Amino acid sequence: MDDIDAMFSDLLGEMDLLTQSLGVETLPPEPPSSSSREMNFSMGFADMNVESLNELEENDLDALMADLMADLNDTEEKLAAELGGKKEAEAPHPDLPPASHGLSFYPVPSLSTPTSPERGPNTFSAPLADSPAPIHSPPTLPQHAKPSKEEIEAQMKADKIKLALEKLKEAKVKKLVVKVVMHDGSSKTLMVDERQTVRDVLDNLFEKTHCDCNVDWSLSETNPELQLERGFEDHENLVDPLSAWTRDSENKVIFQERPDKYEVFKNPQNFYLWKKDKKTIKDMKDRDKELLVEENFCGTSIIVPDLEGVLYLREDGKKSWKQRLFLLRASGIYYVPKGKSKTSRDLVCFVQFDNVNVYYGKEFKNKYKAPTDFCFVLKHPQIQKESQYIKYLCCDDAWTMNLWVTGIRIAKYGKSLYENYKTSMKKAAVTTAWTNRTAATAATTSIPSTPSPTTKAKASGQANGHAPQPPAEPVAKVGNAPPPPPPLLPTQILPPPPPDPVLPPPPPPLATKRSPPATSVSRQLPSLPTLPTSFPPSPTSMANLPPPPPSLSQDDSSESPPDFLPPPPPTLGFGPGAGSLPPPPPVSLPPPPPPDPGFPLPPPPPDPAFCPVTNRGSLPAPPPRQSYIGAGAPPPPPPPPPASAGLQSTPSVRRTGPPPPKRTTPPLAAPGGGDFMSELAKAMAKKRGNQ
Amino acid sequence: MAAWDLSVTVEELGPEAPPLKVSVTSDLHIGGVILKIVEKTQIKKDWSDHALWWEQKQQWLLRPSWTLEKYEIHADARLSLTPQHKPLRLGLPNGTTLRLQACFSRPVFQTVIGVCHLLNLRHPEELSLLRPMEVKKKKKDKEAEEEVVYDLTGLRTSSGPAHTLSNGMPMHFADSLQTEAVYKMLSVSLPAPAPETITKMPRPTSLMDKAQVHSRWLDSSRSLLQQGVQEHDRLLLRFKYYCFHDLDPKYDAVRLTQLYEQARWAILLEDVDCTEEEMMLFAALQYHIGKVSLSEPQPMTSCPAMDDLDSALQCLEVKMEAEESITADMLETMTVAPELQDYLKIFRPKRLTLKGYKQFWFAFNNTSISYYKSKEESLKEPIQQMNLKGCEVAPDVSVAGQKFCIRLLIPGAEGMNEVYLRCENELQYSRWMAACRLASKGKTLADSSFSSEVQNIQSFLAMQRTNPGANTAQTDDSINTYSLVSPRYHKKYKAKQLTPRILEAYQNVAQLPLTDALLRFLQIWQGLPDFGVSYFVVRFKGCRKDEVLGVTNNRLIRIDLSIGDVVKTWRYNTMRQWNVNWDIQQMAIEFNGNVNIAFSCVTATCKIVHEYIGGYIFMATRTKEQAEVLNQELFFKLTGGHEAI
């Protein structure tokens, strides 16, 4: 530990030296705008502004230090482990050699090109190049058909090389020190290496901030000059977009909750059913929402919401905004040229998403005289200043804007978006469970290791969302039947009474009540519906369901009219067929009664199930719930009762195994840390040597 | 009980032979009847596949234990003893025709299952049989050049459900060389068709046309013979339900290929509308798939990343043993990429619009291009360095005009910089173009894909050389671009205009392995707004005019027939029940919230529409877990129905 402290202070000293030399050598003195310094993130260590480093608050330094330390420890441990694994004593694998090799050119380019505006990419592309390099010359293994001992040695050698390769790669990983502005205006400084995704950084921040870890937390970048803002997606590498910032950029990275981030998974109907009336959307059941997500994100291809609408487009180089009819497709945004139809063939491509990101525009009414403030922008991430290559669009209201921005994100990121969501749900669930647990133990209340009942309920709903229990699907998909209330079950399944005389003409309301006996009856009368020929066709009756003549239902006669009401056949002939209930095939049907003489039908491949279906005539199925229960026992997939209960607060909780202990180090930064320090040290040494 | 004579036609006795008379009593069961007939024919053969067909009633008598009385067969009945399996000509999605034995006695659903089992297509429930379109008779004589028919009538599936695969192919195909060839045809996509073929095929021009197609589906719950299909008739096997369950390239070679073929033809014949950009991407993918399936014998490849690592390691090892000096050299080999340097001409439209191209010495380094006044000055500071990472690369090429330009749109903080690079010849162009493309994706010349990228570009350029007018079949690396796009673009663009556009789209897909490319094609197809909608012309209750009902895997769409606008959609999961009144051919559907609709069907029969909706609901009941087992009973329950005949 002392070593490290010493090293760090040493480091700071070196940094001073380094910057001085830098200033002398190449740098035109940077405008000392304090604001820019404040929000500055630094590119690599060579660019690190020492002043700003000094200005960092105490706790920032501590945090940074902790990171570095953890990195060091980690590397050391790893190394020790690796060394332990090797038997050869002669293989001295100090961590320095590879690191120094990486370093030997690492700082050089960064020093030599600091003036170039595209410093980031230029500087660091060289190190990146190395990994694929060796591939081009195909290998021929030299004399390897030798005794096993040599093979073992060869294997070891290969391992060593692998290790060395990994180290080399690590040594060249680009790292940034990033200042993240928190939601309360304070800031934290993090070290981020180029392999870390936004997700990793978020996890890191969760640990540092002890926030509630819900899925809305996100990192965003703001561009004050263009008045833009964009939430990073969790799978992006954070370093990439930051590398596009210019040297004097006032851009910031912000850590905040963004409800729009995963809104599409919480309320998919707002995006996929936006054309429907508001009430339908509002009353959407949780199960249906899950279904929508499943439909659009879990198939072989991602379905992009079919958006279309009139938006304002800022004409290139002009100050006017012009209305156009835009359509969103998976392949890009299109518009309808004047006087053309909306058919695909006439559409003109406005933009494709390969090379652009979508940003929210802030206060464009003032800045660009936009019709409203609800604007979004499409541009290449590298573009940081006003340019004709930025496309500005303006919507009538916030809702429309949100619709479009989310739609574009779906089209651009596709499946990753959903994967991200699932990951953050897991993360949120684990953390919540952990908090619950600690809270529980701390308060010494009852629940020791399981979450509270409410949590549990939520969890089950959540689980449903993630790995939808298969059985639940079919039912809901079709009939939208809510799972049966358990108490009803026994009564309904039990009575398979004989076709009962009471059956006859139940008026519609009654019919539902009677459906238990009805179902059972229907099983006995499978052939009942087989004679539609004689149905008096009466469309109206189909809708109105007048009560049928009582006698008909019993004597299994061939004259059952289409409007004949009794619930029995429903389950049988119509119930399942009638569309409300795919899953409950009355598999257990007793064989049909002897064929109805004079009626030819039952076709050869004669299973009992076949004929009943034939007539889905005009019989009203009983309400789905009922019939489901009636026939519910035999079908393969009965929905789990909890399904309906737990769906509501999906986002918050998910129980997945025991919560891991809290980590204090960023997982990815860790291994690189040691190299990083040594690199730095070497760089200093070299610099001094040069002077 | 009194005996009476039953007359039975037996095919084996010849078409002219009079019906056999057998003396039966009403309580004789069908099995006994067959036995009697067989004895009477005195023909010795395997009769086990034969069954009785009752002509007047259009009905099979398949229950041997049922008595004549039970079937209500009297002396006036005309029966015939005929095989249940008969040869059928089957048109596949890829346009070829197979002759195979199909079951004529069981419901079509089961016939399809049998056929799919034979062809190694999983999830047969998604497919069904379609009657081919009536061919106009006037051309009959010219069309004497019958399409090639692959004969599979001798093929029998192994009875066990376990499909033993040797070399990715089901056992029963491995019998002979011919069948192996047929399997290859089934599982590898066919070369692009000649443009004339596409132009000649009928294309739907209106919603009405698209609706007509769906009137030709066979009824899944009745047998082929019941629906008037005769021996040797031609039927089309098509994917009917557009939800492809559990598509797994490992097991689904044939399914994937046929699905791709169906999708390809849907695109080429404008069955599904798409935009120009999408068409170009489809074309690029078709080109790529065609090329890769020629060169790649087996789609199975191991993980490339692992290979890379292995080869990298081995290569390193070789180096190390040779030179002993370890890390320094290693670094050298890893960082030094192959160099690309040459004199090229550059043009920046923005700055000096009048000046045109100027020559400089160019050097490619990592993902950047630097240029110098001359080769000699290349050690000094470059005039400019351009980092191509994230830039847009587009070809601007005309082989005929010997113009080989690369258009670069390089992003910078200020916006995009437009730059043209002009190369002298094809070779130079393809190398620089490949380098630019890799650089735009952040890769360097050292990347393993560089040489293949160069080749790709060269072979694509070769396309431009082929004369678009010549009716040449696709050869190894030349292909007619008109074969890749729908006829609308034949009129809109000349071939040489089309090539660069396809090439532009091609650069994004050129590195995909075969299966990925196939899947990508399907994904884009599935992403089209009009994908998977089956149209029917219907008349809603209370409306005077015809409208269109679109049926998809999750919703019903009401569409205005004349304009094509969506009027309303209803999702299945809000559906409570549906009913069919067969007499007036009307369907009534009730949705949640007391929404009721009713319509009668105009273009197709009610049964087809009903089966489509029921079928989709059936598809939705499938789950990943309950693999393999097909719940046929449920299918019939949902799609069956009574035909009021």
UniProtKB/TrEMBL annotation, chain A:
PANTHER family (UniProt xref): AMYLOID BETA A4 PRECURSOR PROTEIN-BINDING FAMILY B MEMBER 1-INTERACTING PROTEIN (PTHR11243:SF14), GROWTH FACTOR RECEPTOR-BOUND PROTEIN (PTHR11243)
Keywords: Cell membrane, Cytoplasm, Cytoskeleton, Membrane
Family: Belongs to the MRL family.
Record-annotated PH domain positions: 304-413
Domain Ras-associating: residue ranges: 174-260
Protein's cellular compartments: Cell membrane; Cytoplasm, Cytoskeleton
Chief location: membrane
GO annotations of cellular component type: cytoskeleton; cytosol; plasma membrane
Residue ranges, annotated region (Disordered): 88-152, 441-676
Membrane topology: Peripheral membrane protein
Identification of the protein by name: Amyloid beta A4 precursor protein-binding family B member 1-interacting protein
Biased composition (Pro residues): 481-510, 534-551, 581-609, 633-643
Residue spans of biased composition, Low complexity class: 441-460, 552-562
Species for this entry: Salvelinus namaycush (Lake trout)
Gene Ontology BP, a term: signal transduction
Keyword hit for Membrane: yes
Pfam families named among the record's database cross-references: PH, RA_2
SMART domains the UniProt entry points to: PH, RA
TrEMBL record, chain B:
UniProt superkingdom: Eukaryota
Pfam families: FERM_M (PF00373), Kindlin_2_N (PF18124), PH (PF00169)
PROSITE patterns: PH_DOMAIN
Residue span(s) of domain PH: 345-441
Gene Ontology terms, MF aspect: integrin binding
Keyword DNA repair: no
Keyword presence, Iron-sulfur: no
Keyword terms: Cell adhesion
A Gene Ontology cellular-component term: cell-substrate junction
InterPro entries associated with the record: Band_41_domain (IPR019749), FERM_2 (IPR035963), FERM_central (IPR019748), Kindlin/fermitin (IPR037843), Kindlin_2_N (IPR040790), PH-like_dom_sf (IPR011993), PH_domain (IPR001849), PH_Kindlin/fermitin (IPR037837)
Record-linked CDD domains: FERM_C_fermitin, FERM_F1_KIND3, PH_fermitin
Gene Ontology annotations of biological process type: cell-matrix adhesion; integrin activation; integrin-mediated signaling pathway; leukocyte cell-cell adhesion; platelet aggregation; regulation of cell-cell adhesion mediated by integrin
Coiled-coil regions listed: none
PANTHER family tied to this protein: FERMITIN 2-RELATED, FERMITIN FAMILY HOMOLOG 3
Membership in a protein family: Belongs to the kindlin family.
Record-given protein name: Fermitin family homolog 3-like isoform X2
